Amino acid sequence: MSVLVVSEHRRGELRDVSREAITAGRELADAQGGDLHVAVIGGDTDRFAEDLNREGVDAIHAVANGEEFDHNVYQSAVEALLETVDAETVVIPNSVNGLDYAPAVAEATDRSLVTDAIGFESDDGLTVTREMYGSKVETTVDVADDRFVLTVRGGEWAPAEGVGDATVESVDVDLPESGARVTGFEEVGGGDVDIADADVLVSVGRGIEEEENLELVEGLADALGATLSASRPIVDNGWLPKNRQVGQSGKVVTPDVYIAIGISGAVQHVAGMKGSDTIVAINTDPNAPIFDIADYGIVGDLFDVVPELVDEFA
Amino acid sequence: MKVLVTVKEVAEPDDDFAIEGTDIAASDLEYDLNEWDDYAVEAAVQLAEAGIADEVVAVTIGPERAEETIRMALAKGADRAVRVWDDAFEAGFADVAAKVTTLEAVVEAEEPDLVLGGVQAADTGFGATGVALAERIGFEHAAVVNDLEVDADGGVAHVHRELEGGVEELTEVDLPAVLTVQTGLNEPRYASLRGIRQAQRKEIDARDLADLGLSAADVESALTIASMYEPESESDAEIIEGDAGESASRLAEVLREKGVGA
Predict the structure, then answer these.
(1) Does the ipTM surpass 0.90?
(2) Which of A88, B37, B123, B222 could form a disulfide with A147 if both were Cys (CB 3.0 to 4.6 A apart)?
(3) pLDDT digits over A45-61, tens only?
(4) Which residues in chain B have their CB less than 8 angstroms from residue A313's CB?
């Protein structure tokens, strides 16, 4: 049986997870002894198809329709391709856009759905590895279904390399009338400070507990000559503006030194700061995932440690 | 118009927890209203306060224990609640299709114009129920909404979808629709004492599958959790030991070596 991988692009660029999904798809196709089909939907399909033609890809199906993501187009195109391509398995990036149509495809085509896979084994039926409880544990999930949609987390598979000899064909898809229309895009998080430019970031998370406690980390940032940034909950609470947010939906930062204070290190946050040269973490929970990527860690109460640290630089 | 809010009671592990079989030991779990759903409840209540929604109904799939959580939604302003539970759900891990089948039956009974739910549940993190539900019941949908304006007369919701990397997509979604709500959409209120008192008198309609015209076979799950384990720490961090003063002093040394604060 074959595998269909759906690529993802935005604003004229293929997203990295597309080539990673090809690697995951190839593994599944090998286990099933089938072909690997890749769909590219919308945008500059010729250019994208060339970039997606990697080792192990057997066929690329290009659906030229619109410039940007539209879940109606994606769902219709994937369902149309599944009519012609003999694929039981569909692999889709686990992204904001992937999760805007993958569940609908699974539902409409009567396939089981497993999202946010970080690994799998498929020798004898599919067993997916994924996280639960906010990354505190991993689980293996047995899938009692030969037909499934799998969404794969970015950064977990190596991007497909090399140059393939895939056939490339254009596919026309009839689109049903859509009741959801994309009218534009908006950049958010502009303003006075660009945290991506900072050499040293003091970054604060949920562990700070109360808005008035922010003074503590502001004091540390001042003492160190650092810029203050934050994880998502601080910005959601309106305690700091959006332009201070580090992570998947905020800014990606790569400072010389990143000091994470009261940040547990959820995957969405780590995606935005793992490229920092030196990472320091202060957290009460010794199991917090932030320590997995930290170079230096203090397991302790930030309300005890930070004032002492400020004194050191006073 | 009528708004249905899907809420879930989620389990959060303590800092120290043990794994028993394929789940975390019950004694090491705390239960709470799912954070994302809290924002969905707030959005629904704001629509009611603005005179756009006539009724806000909260629905949950959860055991009796979950009544405490759903009562929080009532205390914050939902008018009434439906709680669905059945022995069939005790058997294992409900997959997306099983949840959708259950919620579909509730939607058929309630006939909402708008369904709001969180982007994902904090414990299982599938992030899929809302969009799959929309497909099943023939509603439009938008996932990961962080800005919402409902034009009830025009029959359309104007939303922003929060994409990765600080970009938002502006989309118009025709009603009826299912929207999955991202944290930060609004400022979820705390339940007032008055709200908590009123919630005690609000109705929580407990249903099992038979009440909804369903059977255990309808919610059979294709997924089984085969194992659960703590991920191997890949940490090669130098953990700085000592009391607060000692560890701060050592960290200061490290930072100075890196040229910080110079």
Answers:
(1) yes
(2) A88
(3) 999 999 999 999 999 99
(4) 252, 261
